[in-house]
Design goal:
This protein has about 180 residues and is an alpha+beta fold. It has a single domain (about 1-175), classed as 3-Layer(aba) Sandwich (Aminopeptidase), CATH 3.40.630. About 25% of the residues lie in helices and about 25% in strands.
């Protein structure tokens, strides 16, 4: 799909190896488990789309991945995410959910996480938003990753309940970004 120097960014393929990804921190082990046990099945069943980063020499061995699904931001009506006088009468805003993001621990400082987030934002903004009603990208961030998502432009949903969660909901308004 995209090529970044010597790296390839593309959709997960049936022949890809889904083992060998090192996530380092035990808090990220569920990401490795998802990739190994569920990513290919969800891909085949159109329940999720997973995109991988590979080195050309090891085309079938991903070193990072991102998984996207349909989602929404539930607000219970107590949060107005749109502002600017825009009204929306429902308690859930249309969104694409960044469901999983992992980078091999040995490659973490290479900017691959940011590359994957930028790719996902571009894909959603250029392909999904023009075709269906979708205003936001949302992620349930691990506490350890909040600062990373903030650096990518995401904002924490501002409710007491959300701030207390182990995996707080963060979002980005797709109308306010340029790709």
């Amino acid at each position: 799909m995209a090529d970044n120097g010597d790296l390839e960014l593309r959709q997960l393929e049936p022949g890809d190896k889904v083992t060998g990804l090192s996530v380092g921190d035990p808090a990220f082990l569920p990401l490795k488990t998802f990739f190994r046990k569920h990513a290919k099945t969800y891909e085949a069943q159109s329940l999720a789309r997973t995109y991988v980063v590979c080195e050309p020499a090891e085309h079938d061995k991903p070193i990072a991945f991102i998984t996207l699904v349909c989602g929404e931001i539930e607000t219970q009506g107590d949060t107005d995410l749109l502002g600017d006088g825009v009204t929306y009468r429902y308690h859930g805003y249309p969104a694409v959910k960044l469901a999983r993001l992992a980078v091999d621990a040995r490659r973490r400082s290479a900017g691959l996480g940011r590359l994957l987030v930028e790719f996902a934002l571009g894909l959603v903004k250029e392909v999904i938003c023009p075709a269906v009603g979708c205003r936001f990208m949302v992620v349930d961030s691990k506490r350890e990753s909040v600062a990373f998502y903030e650096s990518c432009g995401f904002t924490m949903l501002d409710t007491d309940e959300n701030r207390a969660r182990d995996e707080p909901v963060m979002f980005i308004d797709l109308h306010k970004i340029q790709v």
